[in-house]
Amino acid sequence: MPRFRAILDTMPPYRAGKAVVSADGRSYKLSSNESPYEPLPSVVEAVARAAGQMHRYPDPAATGLTEALAERFGVPAEHIALGAGSVTVAQQLFETVSEPGAEVIYAWRSFEAYPLLADLAGATSVRVPLLGEGHHLEAMADAITPHTRMIFVCNPNNPTGTVVQAAELEAFLDRVPQDVLVVLDEAYHEYVRDAGVPDGVDVYRDRPNVAVLRTFSKAYGLAGLRVGYLIAAEPVASAVRKTTVPFAVNQLAQVAAIASLAAEEELLERVEVVVKERDRVRGALVAQGWTVPATEANFVWLRLNERTLDFAEACAAEGVAVRPFAGEGVRVSIGEPEANDTFLAVAAAFPRG
Ligand SMILES: *Cc1c(COP(=O)(O)O)cnc(C)c1O
After folding, report:
1. I need a surface site. Which of 15, 80, 144, 199 has the fewest CB within 10 A?
2. Aminotransferase class I/classII large domain: which residues (predicted)?
3. Which residues touch 26 (CB under 8 Å, ≥6 apart)?
4. Which stretch of DSSP H or E encloses residue 125?
């Protein structure tokens, strides 16, 4: 048998949200924080036109998309790096800083991909427990050592939906050495309505050790096509571009992302509807007697501890797929009203404990 890296034996597999069906055939996928909307016709048309050229390699530099993003955010094109989903860009970030002994700090619980990517890159994970349901930035700063190379701040945090405020982020960044990269993972930025939450694209402008991660998968509804990006000072963006596998972002994804930026107003109207639904769902849960952290993302978090899997099972019986983290809690995406109402009915019937 071939010999593999020992780390592979200890790595938990990434568990993607899976579909469930009720006895009477209903199925709602609230497990992956996807957009509940089908793609816009203008985006589908752009992809369909590009499909006729799929025998050709994509533009390796993704020039059109890079320029569209540079214009959208008012940043130089050299400050942008693209990947097949922002999780790939995150993987590339790990590759740019990791070597034996390198430490990467992140909150826990946070995005499930971080420990996986750290293990794969050969970096050492330093997990700092959440304070309540949010980042404990002071403890994260305290965890910095001479070996620290990178820190992830997921804002809003997946899976708790909590946010870091501008003032606390700035105080934290002031404590981080210049040679440590801070990655603001803003996969859910478009859903944020709290005016105190920083926009990473403003933060990075004064801070050469700050990188912003964004994605087309959530608010822009392109999860199936895989395209995400990083915005950071030139040395950071250029290091990430060096780790890109040639032709990583396929042509249909490039075209769809450009068309989505062109249709941004329409897409952000949809986001606004999801935000209203989110507030309705959280309000209903609180009225039912649940403790639900304030959420600025397109999901809610229920800390169910040892009853987590029972709750997920109760949801599955009604055809609602949620994301359980055994022993901790359940993350439930905001979907179409019918899906949300079905979930709320399960929550209403489940003992509060
Ligand atoms: C969904 C998500 C991503 C990225 O997803 P991609 O589809 O790879 O762009 C990144 N970070 C967090 C925290 C997420 O929840």
Report:
1. 15
2. 29-343
3. 318, 319, 342
4. strand 124-129
